[in-house]
Design brief:
Helix content: 40-55%
Length: 162
């Protein structure tokens, strides 16, 4: 009976860990629950605590060896290439980091070029700028005022003087 429960815990634990890694990355709750289920399943199979620790060490060593062999043969690298982002943002390929000092826009007014709900584009001092509202909806062609700048994030509000 314990074998069925422990195998179920191990399988569900592995599924939860894989979900955390590939599908629903977040705060780690799914991964921690998966790890707890995996450990619980391993310890349920064991007759006593010492045997559970031995099983766990064997599992960790086997996993480490499999990863080592996978890296040496290139299989893990192939998997990593499938799930990782290959694009790099460098100047030779056209990526240009923003050079404008966005803090200069603080207190300035402009026109919303798109609907701001809450993000969009505005024209401020003749420049097209990606902006975010303070949470309100601002229609296109409305006057806006920059109320805050956080790095490259320009926060605007509808200008009351309109």
């Amino acid at each position: 009976m314990f074998v069925g429960i422990s195998l179920s815990l191990i399988v569900v634990g592995i599924i939860l860990i894989l979900l955390e890694i590939f599908i629903i990355p977040g705060f780690g709750i799914t991964g921690i629950a998966g790890l707890a289920m995996l450990l619980g399943g391993v310890f349920l199979v064991a007759d006593n605590f010492a045997e559970g620790v031995i099983y766990l060490l064997i599992t960790l060593i086997t996993t480490g060896l499999l990863l080592f062999v996978g890296f040496k043969t290139g299989r893990v690298n192939k998997l990593w290439r499938k799930i990782s982002l290959k694009e790099k943002q460098n100047i030779e390929e056209g990526y240009v980091a923003p050079k404008k000092e966005y803090a200069d826009y603080l207190g300035k007014t402009g026109i919303a070029l798109t609907l701001l709900r809450p993000a969009g584009t505005a024209e401020i001092e003749g420049d097209r700028v990606d902006v975010v509202t303070d949470g309100s909806f601002i229609p296109k062609d409305s006057k806006i005022k920059v109320i805050s700048v956080e790095g490259t994030r320009v926060i605007v509000r509808k200008d009351e003087n309109e």
